[in-house]
Amino acid sequence: ASDKPLYDRLGGMRQINDIVSKTIDRTSSDPRTKRSFEGIKLAAVKESVAQHLCELSGGPCKYEGASMAKAHAGLAITSEEFDIMDAYLAEELSAHGVADADKAELQKLLGPMKPDVVGK
Ligand code: HEM
């Protein structure tokens, strides 16, 4: 039910970890988006992104990484690259049984971060 925190409706930490891991695996191996991940320790990024999503969705986490602008500084991520990752995330959310309304709620939290991620 939607009275539960989004964190719970996403399936808690177990599911968030899996959704993030698969989204990052797909983004970092797609020829259209892999360049940003060259030389990056994927396990560390996955851990950090999962903590960030946990906190953002009202879960019991404290994200202690960099701001979104700082985390993506120097990567010059394009709007197209952002949208590709976003589409992988949407597919993984569905594949993990997250309802459309809950996907939309997460999208509302992530969408406004686009200007902090793109073109830095
Ligand atoms: C709303 C969208 C996004 C969010 C919320 C997000 C979130 C994050 C977070 C939390 C970190 C870890 C920062 C830290 O540990 O200090 C990170 C790092 C990173 N992100 Fe994103 N990200 C987004 C989009 C993207 C996109 C579209 C790409 C590339 C296609 C990308 C590539 C990376 C890379 C390569 C790193 C590692 C940077 C490094 O370690 O130097 N991110 N992101």
How is this fold's topology laid out?
Elements: H1 6-9, H2 12-29, H3 42-56, H4 68-71, H5 79-95, H6 100-110, H7 114-117
Helix pairs in contact: 2-3, 2-5
Low-confidence stretches: none
Residue fraction in strands:
under 5%
Structural class per helix/strand content? mainly alpha
Shape: globular
What's the structural domain tally?
A: 1
End-to-end Cα distance, whole Å, is: 38 Å
Mean pLDDT: 97
Task: Supply the CATH superfamily name.
Answer: Globins
CATH architecture: Orthogonal Bundle
> What's the CATH topology name?
Globin-like
State the share of residues found in helices, binned by percent: 55-70%
- Quickly count the helices: 7
Number of strands: 0
- Quick one: CATH class? Mainly Alpha
Ligand inventory reads: protoporphyrin IX containing FE
Order of H and E elements: HHHHHHH
| Rg (C-alpha, Å) | 14 Å
What does this structure look like?
- It is a single chain.
- The chain is mainly alpha-helical.
- It is built from seven helices and no strands.
- The mean pLDDT is 97.
- It is globular and about 40 Å long.
- It has a single domain (6-117), classed as Globin-like (Orthogonal Bundle), CATH 1.10.490.
- Helices cover 61% and strands 0% of the residues.
- α2 (12-29) packs across α3 (42-56) and α2 (12-29) packs across α5.
- The site of protoporphyrin IX containing FE has 21 residues, from α3 and α5.
